[in-house]
Amino acid sequence: MTTTLDDRVALVTGGSRGIGAGIALRLAQDGADVVLTYRHDAERAALVVKQIEALGRRSLAVRADGADPGAVLGAVDRAAAEMGRLDILVNNAAVFPFGATEELGMAEVEQTIAVNVRAPYVAVRAALRHLGDGGRIISIGSNVGERAVFSGLALYAMSKTALLGLTRGLARELGPRGITVNLVNPGPTDTDANPADGPNAAAITGFTAVGRFARPADIAATVAHLASPEAGYVTGAVVNVDGGFTS
Q1: For the chain, how many structural domains are there in total?
Q2: Of 28, 117, 26, 130, whose CA–CA distance to 75 is shortest?
Q3: Across residues 236-247, what is the average pLDDT?
């Protein structure tokens, strides 16, 4: 059966768990071979690789700490080298600092900027050596970048808002090369890090219009569309997949 991403190769950073794993699996279901990065949990990364391979697609897990530019660069180049090409880059890996501005230390500030801002930029620079016409760059932001309803989110919101500037600047720059660049802002999503039955879930759900958390598959569906040939005229866009959180 022909699917929309046949013969495409995708790299999903932070693809071993949560939203990243959901994206990696959906891209594989749509026909792509998928490379994913992880920071610590090799076992979980291997499980996602196994699930992708069970779909009949090739997969590879690469250990790469987003705070290390060399590791990010190496992951991109290894993905292209071992898979023979690179067509789709999904910047998903991120850290989530939480706390009052005066309480967060400089180490947390530097890690957040390194992983959430610098790493996507480094990944894009590396990927541009491999992406050609029809290439796709999709970054995963956050609804918090548009609406921070709780205190303690300033650093995280700042880092995710930076992806808006990256997306729009790159879209203008890369449009003539046939490469689209888009930003997906998930809302509250049911993951290990933010479970739908967690202690703050009721309050968070109350800010959505649909009254529930997203599933990783909800976010992945939008990413898969933006990665597809059908989305070739969508670039520089911000898509809020947040259940109406920011409405």
Answers
A1: 1
A2: 130
A3: 96
